[in-house]
Specification:
This protein is mainly alpha-helical. It is built from two helices and no strands. The protein has helices spanning 5-21, 39-53.
């Protein structure tokens, strides 16, 4: 799958900041001491890696059709 322009820019900026500063976030409250990435950067990088591999995002999983009948309730 092709990455969006934003995703490409994000990857480039993270890489540049890691090379320059040794970590990709400036606010110490956004990441653990000694960590190179903030929690949200880790999440976004996992999503981008999954997209690049062709995985479907968790929110795109099949859902039942709206016209499908609900299962019988048991009393």
């Amino acid at each position: 799958m092709k990455l969006s322009d934003w995703e490409g820019e994000f990857l480039g900026s993270v890489e540049d900041r890691l090379k320059t500063f040794g970590r990709a976030f400036g606010d110490p409250d956004k990441g653990a001491p000694g960590e190179a990435l903030s929690m949200m950067q880790r999440v976004k990088l996992k999503e981008i890696a999954g997209k690049a591999k062709g995985d479907k995002p968790p929110w795109a999983k099949r859902r039942p059709k709206p016209d499908a009948e609900p299962p019988d309730e048991q009393d």
